[in-house]
Specification:
Elements lengths: L5 H11 L4 H11 L3 H11 L4 H17 L13 H10 L2 E6 L5 E6 L10 H27 L6 E6 L11 H14 L4 E7 L3 H10 L5 H4 L2 E3 L5 H4 L10 H4 L23 H18 L18 H20 L15
Parallel strand pairs: 2-3, 3-4, 4-5
Antiparallel strand pairs: 1-2
Length: 337
């Protein structure tokens, strides 16, 4: 693991001071007043190379400008029924905070179907959650806990993972590439829970392909992972799929509020959606908003990431053939592609 020293940060800071004004402006939305910590993230992502980190950061800022990322929180997905469909099929939410103050992000990998909207809406929603996390949730957490909070914990639920996961490889690779290039080092630890055989088989062949720093971040927990997760967070912050004892999901907590952090009715998504609608109202005073999804330029995946996606595809197909399921990758389409 590369140690990021003060000299590296100073060199990168000097280079960033020389970038053009439009890039400086969007950089403010990226660092939120924590320039040093942000530079450290990009340096870590490029193994301490100042020049590579600078190139990565400048390309990120240009991507933000070209795709109007600074304005994406003012572009709610409407009507509400369409957004509810996105939320019901792209299972992501925030269930609470760890005892160290890190937001706990839950992801329903196995049961996400991505079949109620076009690929553009799912990518728009993902970026909106990234921006809301970085511009609202993390600054608020830093203030609440009296120290810099710049990362989150992710709990990935593999319940229901099937061979049909092949349907989402292209979309998930696009989302992963956006995160790797534009939101690097934002996750402290990935906790894998409820892992079926199909995940274990893929993990065995994919793990050796991962970078060392990524491997160290991934922990595969037994069962729902409840006992292990309770060591770092309170019960109230556990994702709903970690609280259940048997099959089926917990929909409501004891106080009557919605406990399913994937649902649009959960407080996190209600606050996020209300925030985007309020930002839209404010921006409409300047210029009318456009209907429809936001089309974001999809970056080319890193060759290593492409290799990982190909390995997952190959392993899933091997498992399918072994079990008498014949479905080729070429027969698979993504809605809206």
């Amino acid at each position: 693991m590369v140690f990021i020293n003060e000299d590296m940060i100073k060199q990168l800071l000097t280079l960033m001071d020389e970038i053009a004004e439009p890039l400086q402006k969007t950089f403010q939305n990226v660092h939120q007043g924590y320039r040093t910590e942000t530079l450290m993230r990009f340096l870590k992502a490029r193994d301490g190379s100042v020049l590579k980190a600078h190139k990565m950061l400048v390309e990120c800022l240009n991507w933000r400008i070209d795709n109007e990322i600074d304005q994406i929180l003012a572009k709610p997905i409407v009507p509400t029924d369409l957004y509810r469909g996105v939320r019901d099929t792209q299972l992501v939410g925030m269930s609470g905070y760890s005892r160290d103050g890190l937001p706990v992000v839950a992801v329903g990998v196995g049961l996400s179907t991505y079949d109620k909207a076009s690929i553009h809406y799912y990518i728009q929603s993902h970026i909106q959650m990234n921006e809301y996390r970085d511009r609202v949730i993390l600054p608020s957490a830093s203030k609440k806990f009296g120290r810099y909070v710049g990362t989150c914990i992710k709990v990935l639920d593999m319940t229901g993972l099937k061979l049909s996961a092949l349907n989402q490889i292209k979309l998930l690779t696009a989302i992963s590439t956006i995160d790797d290039l534009n939101y690097p080092e934002k996750t402290e630890t990935y906790y894998i829970v409820n892992a079926p055989y199909i995940f274990s088989a893929c993990w065995k062949v994919v793990r050796p392909l991962l970078q060392e720093r990524t491997k160290k971040k991934v922990q595969v927990l037994s069962g729902s992972g409840k006992d292990e997760l309770l060591k770092i967070m309170d019960y109230a912050s556990l994702p709903h799929f970690c609280k259940r004892e048997g099959s089926g999901s917990s929909k409501h907590s004891r106080n009557g509020t919605n406990d399913n952090c994937f649902s649009l009715d959960h407080p996190f998504h209600q606050q996020l959606y209300e925030y985007t609608k309020q930002q839209a109202l404010a921006s409409e005073a300047v210029a009318p908003s456009k209907e429809g999804s936001v089309h974001v330029t999809l970056p080319e995946p890193d060759p290593d990431d492409a290799k990982i996606a190909e390995t997952i595809e190959s392993e899933l197909q091997r498992i399918g053939e072994k079990n008498g399921i014949c479905q080729t990758f070429h027969e698979i389409k993504i809605n809206g592609d």
